[in-house]
């Protein structure tokens, strides 16, 4: 009993301390100039997704990948260290337009699959226990940025031919505590809605997104929307890059400490119960 109570009290003490943790993706192994975007389970039939995940720091990132018979597509999260800022198109979907990770070598890539109806799905993050999110650094992928800046065979050039079209690409992040939404934060990865075209921008560096307003959460969900929408949905490539997600463990409520105190009173650590 002494050992059990000591373990309980120590666990409560450790759990109550607010400890900042960062998911920087550098705890994931990658060869230089490479990425991971899911592993197809050979037992899963063709055209059906393999559902998986990976973890960095305290966060778990969802992923699903589908084998279409020699061609694969994925949604959710990948991680990468690719930094090609000049090659346009789908073959360069894992590079950051900032040209480097925010810290270290690796970063995360979120993909919603909505651009061309490949495996449409959400990018989500979960935590084993409640946390308070400080925020993360975000930037565009090269694929998305060059599509907005120059247009491509699927998507328009932001601003249009005149430069006056009020285009935009918005990332929305919602906090969840179980099944309850705690709030949301919007961040524009590109914005051409200004009256002065000189203010129009496509994000090309790592920028901080503050999530402190979301409170105590057990998960984050991400959504991306664009002004460029066609018959089959959003035309702009639905990707973004993340690095250095920072969260702090939420201390246990006072009720746990009352329980700990009661245990200590009823069963003193030096006394064996009868």
TrEMBL record:
| Signal peptide positions on this chain | 1-20
Query: What residue ranges are annotated as transmembrane?
Result: 250-269
Keyword GTP-binding in record: no
Q: Name one Pfam family in it.
A: DUF4465
- Keywords in alphabetical order: Membrane, Signal, Transmembrane, Transmembrane helix
From the Swiss-Prot or TrEMBL record, give the protein name.
Answer: DUF4465 domain-containing protein
């Amino acid at each position: 009993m002494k050992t059990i109570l000591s373990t309980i009290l120590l666990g409560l003490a450790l759990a109550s301390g607010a400890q900042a943790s960062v998911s920087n993706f550098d705890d994931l192994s990658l060869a230089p100039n490479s990425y991971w975007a899911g592993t197809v389970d050979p037992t899963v039939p063709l055209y059906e997704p393999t559902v998986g995940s990976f973890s960095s720091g305290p966060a778990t990132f969802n992923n699903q990948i589908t084998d279409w018979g020699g061609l694969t597509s994925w949604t959710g999260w990948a991680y990468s260290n690719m930094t090609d800022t000049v090659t346009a198109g789908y073959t360069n979907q894992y590079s950051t337009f900032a040209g480097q990770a925010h810290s270290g070598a690796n970063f995360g890539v979120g993909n919603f699959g909505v651009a061309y109806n490949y495996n449409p799905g959400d990018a989500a993050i979960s935590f084993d226990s409640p946390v308070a999110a400080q925020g993360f650094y975000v930037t565009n992928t090269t694929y998305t940025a060059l599509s907005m800046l120059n247009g491509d065979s699927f998507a328009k050039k932001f601003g249009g031919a005149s430069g006056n079209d009020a285009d935009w690409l918005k990332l929305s992040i919602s906090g969840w505590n179980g099944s309850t939404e705690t709030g949301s934060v919007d961040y524009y990865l590109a914005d051409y809605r200004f009256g002065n075209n000189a203010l129009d921008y496509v994000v090309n560096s790592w920028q901080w997104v503050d999530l402190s307003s979301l409170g105590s959460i057990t998960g984050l969900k991400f959504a991306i929307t664009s002004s460029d929408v066609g018959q089959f949905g959003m035309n702009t490539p639905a990707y973004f890059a993340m690095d250095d997600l920072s969260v702090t463990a939420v201390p246990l409520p006072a009720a746990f400490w009352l329980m700990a105190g009661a245990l200590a009173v009823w069963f003193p650590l030096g006394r064996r119960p009868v």
